[in-house]
Amino acid sequence: MTRPLQAIVNLGSILSNYQQAKTLVGGSVAAVVKANGYGHGLTTVATYLAPHVDALAVATLEEAVEIRAENVSTRLLVLEGVFDAEALDTAIQLNLDLVVHSEYQVELLERYHQSAVNTALNIWLKIDTGMGRLGFHPDKAAERYKQLHSLSIVESVILTSHFACADEPEREENVFQLAAFDAAVRSVQRAHDELFESRSETTPLPQSIANSAAIIALPAAHRHWNRAGIMLYGSDPVNRAVDGSVGKQSLACSMTLQSRLIAVRSAAKGESIGYGADFRFSEDGRYGIVACGYGDGYPRHAGTGTPVMVDGVRTRLIGRVSMDMLAVDLSCVPQAVVGAEVELWGPQLSVAEVAECAGTIPYELFTGLTQRVPRVY
Ligand SMILES: *Cc1c(COP(=O)(O)O)cnc(C)c1O
């Protein structure tokens, strides 16, 4: 008998969520599959999506190498870019799109250019409009653009930035960031027009700023390219519905974390359950032990009361989550016996709700799922 814990991944749901993103923006959408495909499995998700998407995006070169090793030739963007000359070599061999966010990356390209290798890179020039993480100051955008555009190895430059608060669309920071981005784009456009002495009817430069939240809730941020991550995996970061639905967009659920009861026990009034004897039954009761713990990536900070589905009935976690197990109250599930099906999150119980109970976000629960959990497609 194998351990009953599994993450059941619905690849069709991920694709249908991608198509929802496409419908919302009209333009191109890069499917973000970084961090092991948000826990769903990097190469399985990437190879499945590849024929259907405008581009894939990952955080690191290592992730891109894994995807290319599967013979995926779809356009593939590395969101952190490369950190040294060797990595740039690899990126060029693998025909990757690269973000350039720092001087040292411009210098790497300049040095490569001097070796006069025939190549045609798509560079995503990152502008820091308020996230305060990666990218050039908006005042530097035009200069960097000219520098990059003068390199024969650079085929195209896409202007890009990232929101800090898009999951709260009413925040004024979004307005400021969008204004800063548009101002930077205008300055780059002027520099571009000077370089090419173009006439009035210039086509706008390719741009990208929207993540999932902006795709869903900030239409003004929709541009040529958009980057959908968490929404592909059925989680709406804006309308964080905690009622078991996944929000207004009715995204399709992409993962069910499923297990079974491996023990059923009764407790007398006053008996404690689990580490720290944190939970005590206030009257005689019945409870079950589920094969799933923080060693699998279930959040240890999910306390007593966190919802769990047992045999189709919504009940609650009790006591502290252990490394390999957790306990659930069976007072309201009298029919549950050993082997009863348990849904930790999935279509009946949103990952957002579990995340909320653990003081975190669906991103962390998905990416935190450990290797011990078999992914079943
Ligand atoms: C991860 C990431 C995304 C995707 O963000 P979601 O909120 O998951 O849609 C988009 N852009 C950049 C730069 C990222 O790092």
From TrEMBL:
The active site is at K34, Y275. It catalyses: L-alanine = D-alanine. InterPro entries: Ala_racemase, Ala_racemase/Decarboxylase_C, Ala_racemase_C, Ala_racemase_N, Ala_racemase_pyridoxalP-BS, PLP-binding_barrel. Its cofactor is pyridoxal 5'-phosphate. One of its GO terms (cellular component) is cytosol. Pfam families: Ala_racemase_C, Ala_racemase_N. Its EC number is 5.1.1.1. The keyword Membrane does not apply. GO terms for molecular function: alanine racemase activity; pyridoxal phosphate binding. Pathway: Amino-acid biosynthesis; D-alanine biosynthesis; D-alanine from L-alanine: step 1/1. Keywords: Isomerase, Pyridoxal phosphate. Substrate binds at R133, M323. Residues 254-377 form the Alanine racemase C-terminal domain. GO terms for biological process: D-alanine biosynthetic process. The keyword Isomerase applies. The modification N6-(pyridoxal phosphate)lysine is found at K34. Catalyzes the interconversion of L-alanine and D-alanine. May also act on other amino acids. This is Alanine racemase. It comes from Microbulbifer agarilyticus.
